[in-house]
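Protocol step 4 of 6: record predicted structures for both targets in the notebook before any analysis. Target 1:
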Amino acid sequence: MTEAHLPAKRPSETLVTIFGGSGFLGRHVVRALAKRDYRIRVAVRRPDLAGHLQPLGKVGQIHAVQANVRYPESIAAAARDSDIVINLVAVLTESGAQTFDAVQDKGSAAVAEAAKAAGARLVHVSAIGADAQSACAYFRAKAAGEAAARAAVPDAIVVRPSLLFGQEDDFTNRFAALARALPVLPVVGADTRVQPAFVGDVGLAIAQLVDGRGTSGATYEFGGPEVLTIRQVFEMILKFTERDRTLLPLPFGLAKLKALFLQFAPGALKLTPDQVEMLRIDNVVPDAAKTAGLTLEGLGIVPESLEAITPSYLWRFRKTGQFRSSAA
């Protein structure tokens, strides 16, 4: 592994193609890169739904194109002439043709091959917990995606974030929505440890890797400033939303049985058997990454905490909205 070279071109002359750039993490990566004056091509399945990205940059700086990781020809076309390629595409649950294998394994291979053909540097976003031997299919697919990326582009930088939180997340918002509706909240993996990372910090870190501040071929692991159990995270969300609810820890066996039915449920109630397996596994930055400086702190970023960020958007789940109740 070597220090990543600084781009020979100025940012305004450098084309960064971001696959999956219209999603939760993607919009923060786009914002951070736009502030640095990079030219940005956002490759997404539905370019007509990526209009929310335009105000993040100057006129003409951000351009959306159609691409689907299940169709390598569209990936190759989207990556053409790119200087840097970022792959953010992922699915948390499978649906129809959007399977873990199709998106996170074969899709990652297609993006990496396209980056190689374009002669572009590659930043591949995976997840803490990626493991080819994991009982969790999501984590096995993430590991396969990392291997495919490195097979095509050996000096690719891999980024593994922990759980991401932020205003548009499907984590804190999901639990807060359930707390608004249910008096008793089942908790799967109550004692599993997580290290939630603010999505804005991870977006900034990826922009710094694009700047050339990272180590080629390295695996970065990004987590927030504190390690918490799932139960502690939920207790904090209840505090921020001013909800008095009972937390009911569920044994994994019972949770997996319930997930056989809840995998077909809509919205916040959805829970798949594979997500139950995921919740068995601690999701924290390993000591080896800390020692090597392959973390947010290693890039000079002081990570934000749940307590600092989530009250700024979870207020909408309070009974009194943005106004504090007299009892608070």
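Target 2:
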Amino acid sequence: MKKIVLQIFCSLQLIGLSKAQVVNLTSTTFTIQEDFSSLGNSGTALSALPAGWWIIEQGSGGNTTYRSGDGTVNSGDTYSFGTGTNLDRSLGSVASGSVQPNFGVKIRNQSGALINSFRVGFWMEQWRSGGRTGLDSLYFYYGIGSQFDSANTVGLNKPWVRFVAGDVVSKVTQATGAGLDGNLSANRQWYQFLVSGVNINNGDTLYLRWQDPNVGGNDDGLSIDEFAFTINGVLPVSWASFEILSLNNSNRLSWSTNSETNNGHFEVERSTDANVFETIGQVKGNGNSSVTNHYMFIDEQPLAGVTYYRIKQVDFDGQFSYSDVREVNNERITPVITSPNPFQTTLTLQLNNATQVPTSIELVDLTGKVRYYHLAEVTEVNPQFQLSVADLPAGIYFVRVSNSTDITIHKVVKQ
């Protein structure tokens, strides 16, 4: 891991947010976490930040606020990225010629011990590809001591340490600028790294900083989410994925981890407002593991309407961390009636309450092979479709009906 010490003397105009509160680290076994759900989710002049977090914008266009966005615009600014007004947010930026954003967090050592190393983990989410085949970045720095506080803001003209192993790099490049969904696995990546050889005395403040350099012509929107910070140890779980699939009258939650340390179990939580969660189940973890592990839980009695889910990971010693929050709308599930069942030569499907969007109809055998496929253009409320499958051998099959938002699966028998 390469460390470069930089003296940064900025001649550009610096616009900083009011001096942020500090996050107190009260124990060397404690993990600091932030999911950024408290960021504003609508507006272009937002100021609320999680405790300890700060933003500073360099350049003539800089200001003391950030905006909400989904990656569809390329205006230089600090951003609360997310889908619409969804409460699942991430903190990031788009740089331009007149705005170069910086953001970070202040952590004070109140553990009573000297700290010689720390570990940082977070999801990098890419919400915009700027329309250039080259890569954009977020540079990572850290600093120790009160010298980094300057005139009620965080001083940028101080001896920050550039830690190259912590730099964030774009995951998606394309010729045309466009917004991306940063929550999709194709547009996000887990970062985790150890910074060692430091001396953080009790009472000292550690400053972490991400800087968005202005890469000409490449206005990518990069952000961080599910931030975790720990001392002299490893983060309990490296999340790989978390997805939800609506299946008839149940919701299937699937998640995976890249690595686990002292992982006791997972608790599945759900909510109707993404604020107050209840625990609905538990899945055993794999303790200590350096390989990918896959998990699944089925909510057999899902709530009506929009439901939010998250996974709580609990260590053997009771410490815990959270996954991202995911949502599903159970009112969009399209009931399918199959008749007759069992059938011989022709199977009739009726899609109740179908939406007027292209719908895929598949007949799948027990090996997973698709034996029949039809892309239907739904133009009425309760359409019927006939599947002529006389040539199929007798046996058990599954009818899979899906569109852009939903999927339902029904078991049928051919005689």
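Step 5 preliminary note on target 2. The CA atoms of residues 18 and 359 lie 52 Å apart. Confidence is low (pLDDT under 50) at residues 1-19.
Proceed to step 6 after PI sign-off.
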